[in-house]
Design a protein that fits this description.
The protein is mainly β. The chain has one domain. It has no helices and 7 strands. Strands 1-2-3-4-5-6-7 form a 7-stranded mixed β-barrel.
Length: 80
């Protein structure tokens, strides 16, 4: 796992500042993330962020009750 610092945004797209996350990468994508003491895993959903045009990936925790979206480099986290 690699510790990263990412810019984070809440559900209302409000900037909540820099947040730490521990990320494990596999084949150039995040395979798991520990963020705010929760473990997140890829849901299989990917897309393009409308605002940034970047590739994004959804990860979820706790049987899909918690979700985050990340960009490929995990420099941005959007809470969902």
């Amino acid at each position: 796992m690699r510790r990263i610092t990412a810019q984070a945004f809440d559900l209302n797209n409000k900037n909540i500042g820099k947040q730490f996350a521990d990320v494990e990468f596999f084949a150039g994508q995040a395979a798991s993330i520990i963020y705010k003491n929760e473990s997140y895993y890829p849901s299989g959903k990917t897309g393009t962020n409308i605002r940034t045009g970047e590739y994004v990936q959804e990860l979820n925790a706790k049987n899909d009750s918690l979700r985050i979206w990340i960009n490929k480099q995990v420099t941005i986290i959007w809470e969902d």
